[in-house]
Specification:
The structure is a homodimer. The first copy, chain A, has ten helices and eight strands. The first copy, chain A, is α/β, with parallel strands linked by helices. Chain A folds into two domains: about 170 residues, NAD(P)-binding Rossmann-like Domain (Rossmann fold), CATH 3.40.50.720; about 100 residues, Orthogonal Bundle (6-phosphogluconate dehydrogenase C-terminal fold). Chains A and B meet through helix 6, helix 7, helix 8, helix 9 and helix 10 of A and helix 6, helix 7, helix 8, helix 9 and helix 10 of B.
Chain lengths: ~280, ~280
């Protein structure tokens, strides 16, 4: 089902490229355009059938009905004013950034037909080479409308993500950032900190427990530094709670309080099993 | 190749049961006996071809040439004196406990032909129902001889684990416990603490990052409470280092020190990628 005539993806990496592949595979758009500031990436995106044509020049998106901003958050904010001067008046805009409060507040001032989206898909791997047309299948996409979001934009973009294979859930930008600080950003902090303190001489003994616990520490450091700083307020609170719980476990071990230790672990176990 | 005439497994759970299945499948013993204090477990172990015959009574192990102690550490220490009064004089003893310093010191006093072993296999799942004959294939088994360990015991048990499919690495009981505090016990602490602080209302948004990072928090709480208390000294130090690193990351976020944050994350990333 064709939802848009022309869609343009700014930033044809893992997420942007996977959106392009899914758009084309499911015939959701007549034409998919791509913008990347890396020339090589455009050629790769074409070869992966993520885009029909691409350019390093933003002018290519001037006739698009849908523009997907899929570069890192910092770059989205830098490009937004320039993009606003290029697109059609009725063009619908979305971004796929990992934090929403700051970016939504800024982008909805710049673009009248904008809604923030955050597909909870992806992996520690980046780049167009890892893009897949089924990346969003059975995943969850969070949409963050505000009172300024037009109903037709909200409905059309909900439909878009459903067609890309995702389940859709709506929540406010600030709730989104609070939720993500716990379910995504804090686990990344834990993984980065954990692998950092393992003495190199013991890494040869690593088994699946350590590997799974630290898998996401192989994620892109610059991208995650940006995300952490963009969600500073929520994340600092989440880290505090994590450290308080870790200290509680530490004290139970120090005092050989087996009863308390067992209680904390049992609660954690049943919570994890319910996931 | 037959290495032992009769082998007896005390504790036919995930690890004990998997050893039995691998012993029988690879014809490493003529007969495999099992002791479990849960009657049901004996029937299941027979059905899974982990043992030839089993009993709730320890007397069944009296003619064994090899006894594998595979109950939780606390129980091993309780049973050891009784077992010493039952076994043949030249019987070789091993345990498969997750900590080694305390147990090796005690067991090598009780059993003349003893060596500590620790197969780094298993999962968050427990019990004979999850036992597999290939659990140790391509895994690592740590052997912890001391100056009291007879050479023939060390050689025979190395051969045993090689035949069970594992790679074998020797290290002292205290080095073992130091290594394990970092590569296994600390990741469990992190996983238990992490899942504990995720607000229930956000659990529906959990993606693969959170799931992988906390998988091992579904492990048995009593077993892990014992392991943590048995490795108290090393683990407290490992937790301290983990908390210090987490605090460093927190401070970098608080001060919006992107350069420092990026440096910490980049180092973590390259360490994880080398795993």
């Amino acid at each position: 089902m064709v939802l848009f005539n022309q869609a343009a993806i700014v930033g044809t990496g893992l997420i942007g490229g996977s959106i392009g592949m899914a758009l084309k595979k499911n015939h959701i758009c007549r034409k998919v355009l791509g913008v990347s500031f890396h020339k090589k990436s455009i050629g790769l995106a074409k070869r992966k059938k993520a885009i029909d044509c691409g350019s390093q020049n933003l002018q290519i998106i001037k006739d698009a009905d849908l523009v997907i901003l899929a570069t890192p958050v910092e770059q989205i904010l830098k490009l937004a004013p320039q993009i606003a001067g290029i697109i059609k008046k009725d063009c619908i805009m979305i971004d796929v950034g990992s934090t929403k409060e700051g970016i939504v507040a800024k982008l909805e001032k710049i673009f009248p037909n904008y809604i923030g989206t955050h597909p909870l898909a992806g992996s520690e791997k980046r780049g167009i080479l890892n893009a897949r047309d089924d990346l969003f299948k059975n995943s969850l996409c969070l949409l963050t409308p505000t009172r300024n979001t037009a109903v037709f934009v909200r409905k059309k973009i909900e439909e878009l993500w459903l067609h890309l294979g995702a389940r859709v859930f709506f929540l406010s930008p600030d709730k989104h950032d609070e939720a993500l600080s716990f379910i995504s950003h804090l686990p990344h902090i834990a993984a980065f900190a954990l692998i950092s303190v393992i003495p190199g001489k013991f890494l040869n003994f690593a088994s699946s427990g350590l590997k799974d616990t630290t898998r996401i520490a192989a994620s892109d450091n610059e991208l995650w530094a940006d995300i952490f700083l963009n969600n500073q307020k929520n994340l600092l609170r989440a880290i505090d709670e994590f450290q308080a719980k870790t200290s509680l476990i530490k004290q139970a071990i120090k005092k050989k309080n087996k009863k308390l230790l067992n209680k904390i672990l049992a609660e954690a176990k049943s919570k994890r099993e319910a996931l």
